[in-house]
C-alpha cells in the first residue's frame, strides 16, 4: 500500500481534509517506528490486524479495541509520538474526571491545542460571541483540559481570563458519600467567588456548568449583574434540558447569547452547539470532524442506531497529536445526521448512563 502524505496532519483548522486520507496518514504517523508513540508501537503487536495495511479509511477505525482504560496506568511520556522530536512542545498532561475509577491521562501537544482553539473561536464568532472582552470561567483547572481550553480561548478570542477553580472529583466524592449538604456548601462557595469577580470586573463572557448557572439564576443580584455586563454564556460539563435553555434565553438572560459545548478529555477537545437549532428543541452538538468524531450506537451490538433514536456515544480522535479510536463514552445521545461534508454523527439530548465500567455515574457539578 502506498505511503500516505503526512502533510495532511498539519493542515489549518479551516481546511477540510478527506477523512479517509487523514486516517491513512494517521496510521503512518502513529505506527511508523520513527514517528509513533511507544504506547502504540508496543500495542500494535497485540491488535490482531496491521494498521498500516488494514486500516484504509474512517470506517476501519472500528477495528481498534477501546484502549481508554489502559490510559489509567501508561507513563505519559509513552503517549507522545516520537515524530515530535526529543523536546516536544507539550502544553500539558490532562486527566479525566475520575467518575468511573482512577483517572485516565492524555498528553496535549501545542499544535493540537492551537488548532482546536482556532476552530472553537470560529464557532464562537458564528454564535455572536463578542471579541476582545474579559472572560470569567467557573470551571475545573488543574489536570482537566477544560481549564486549558478556557485560558487559551480567553486569551485568543477575548482579552483577560478570570478563573474560579472547581474540583469536580471532590463534589462527586461528597455526593457518593451522601454528604449532599457539604456539596451544596462547596457549590455556594464557588458561586460566592464568581460573584466577587462579576462585581469588580467588566466580564463580557461567562463559561460555566449548567448546575452552577442554575445557582446564579437563583440569585437576583447575580442575574442583574449578568444582564448588565455579560454578553455571552458558554456552558458545558453536564447537560442542559431544552426547557431550561429556553427559560434562560427568553426570560432570565434574554439579551445574552447562550451556547453549549460537549467534550471529553479522551478526545482532547469539545463539540459545539449547532447554530440555528430551533428554540425548545434538544441541543445538537457538531464535532471538529474529521479529527474528532462521534458515532451513536447500540451498546450491545455496536451497530449504529437509526437517526432520531437514542444510543451510546462512541468517540474517535484521529490527529497528529493523538490516536484514540473507538472509545465508548459514559453518555447516551440521540443520533442526528452530521452537517454535509462531515463524517460520523452529531449528537443531541446528551444524558449520562446510570452505570459505566461497573461504577455508578455521578455528575456532580461538572
List keywords for this structure.
eleven-stranded mixed beta sheet; 366 residues; two-stranded antiparallel ribbon; single chain; alpha/beta
Characterise the protein shown here.
Helix 4 (110-126) crosses helix 5 and helix 6 packs antiparallel against helix 7. This protein is α/β, with parallel strands linked by helices and 366 residues long. Strand 3 (134-139), helix 5 (145-157) and strand 4 form a beta-alpha-beta unit. The mean pLDDT is 93. The chain has helices spanning 19-31, 38-43, 51-54, 110-126, 145-157, 168-176, 180-200, 210-217, 220-229, 242-252; strands at residues 90-95, 105-109, 134-139, 161-165, 203-208, 232-236, 257-264, 269-273, 284-286, 292-297, 310-318, 323-337, 345-352, 355-356, 359-360. The radius of gyration is 20 Å and the shape is globular. An eleven-stranded mixed beta sheet has the order 4-3-5-6-7-8-9-13-12-11-10, with helices on both faces.
